[in-house]
Each structure stands twice: as C-alpha cells, then as structure tokens.
Amino acid sequence: MKKKTWTDWQINKPCPACGNGELISIKEKYVQTETRISSIQTTEQPNFPFTDYVFTEHLNCNYCDEIVVASGYKSEDNYPNPDGDHSMEIKYRSFIPAPNIIEIPKSCPVVVKKILIDSFGLFWMDENSCANKIRISVEALMDALKVKKTMITKKGRKEITLHSRILAYQNKRPDVSEFLLAIKWIGNGGSHLSNVTTDQILDAYRLLEYALELIYDDKKKDLTRISRAINKRKKAI
C-alpha cells in the first residue's frame, strides 16, 4: 500500500473489482454544482479568489470495465496561473464500491475481509469511524485465530480485552502481535473520537496489510506447492 495513492486526488485509484486496472473518470458523466455558500461569496465579492463545488462522477476501470460512482468537494481558483490553467483541489467523500486500500490475502477469513471492505468505504467519509472499524477487524482476526476470548473468574465468565488477547497471541507470533497492538492503539483513538488523522489510518492499514501477509502467506503456500510438485517429479511442470 502506497500512502500517496490515497492522499493525492490526482492519482487514479485501483479498481475494487479486479484490482488490476485504474479508475478513470467518464467526462460525460461528471456533474458539479457550486455550493450555496460559495455562490453567496462570489456574488457579494466579485473578486473572491476561489469557487467551491460539490460533484458526482462515474469512473470506469480501464481493465475490467467496472463502474464506480464517486462524490466529493472541489475548490477551484478563479484566476488562471501564467500557463492559463486554474489550480484546483478535490476532496473525495465517497466511492461506491470503494477501492481496496490494502491487499487482502485470499485465505484471510471472510468475516475479517468483510469488515475491512466496510472500512474502505468509511475511509472517505469519517476517519474516526474508519479507525474503529479497523480495530474491529483485529478483534475478528483474534476470533478467527482462536485466541481465547473469555475467562472464568470468581464472579463468572468475563470477556478478555483485545489488548490482552493480542498479548496472548504474542506467545505464538511475536512478529505479528507487535503490529496488531499498534493498530489497536490507533483504533482506540477512533473509538474515543480523538480525531484520528488520515496519515494515522493509513499507518494502521500498512501495519495490518503486513500482519495479514505474515499470518496468511498465500505467496509462500503457492510457491511451496509448486516447488514440491517439481521436486517430486524431478522435472519442470
């Protein structure tokens, strides 16, 4: 996962369906409307430096033809630069369906995968909710890995905290638990409405992508299968 792909609006986003192509805007299906506040500003102040719009657009994958609908805000400079172009800034607020921000291993449990896909949509809308959803995916991951969820105490059955579960998993995979613990701290910020930043969320995604790669190493499994088949036949297959 490259951070710049998700922070720079000028970079085409990957297709959520095939993952191979890029989403290209269909010019004929791009619609923008000036916001009410911007309209008042530019009317009252003819020399106002910029104009704000809301927009919707359809994007088409240049590989599989998938269609994605996006929307957001656009701010355009009212005065051209020396080259005659108007500078602009775009802030996307939704993608339907949302592109996959990280690569999810094929053997990753379906429940974890589904939660992550939900988080990709929240990334554009609400950073705190997105961070919380990533934290929930770690809880689901602990369940899938059969890390003990409850314990018996004198007062009855008690739930074990996510923090303690990750520490328990440390006995089995210390290389992974360190990443999961860092993700949990970022997720906690979202749960407590601590104004998690886009950079922090992308850090959580990067850590999770690598953790999942270590746990569900599809590449290693596939290459091991191929090498064993070749070695068994003692020739190329």
From TrEMBL:
Pfam families: DUF4145. InterPro entries: DUF4145 (IPR025285). Residues 122-208 form the DUF4145 domain. This is DUF4145 domain-containing protein.
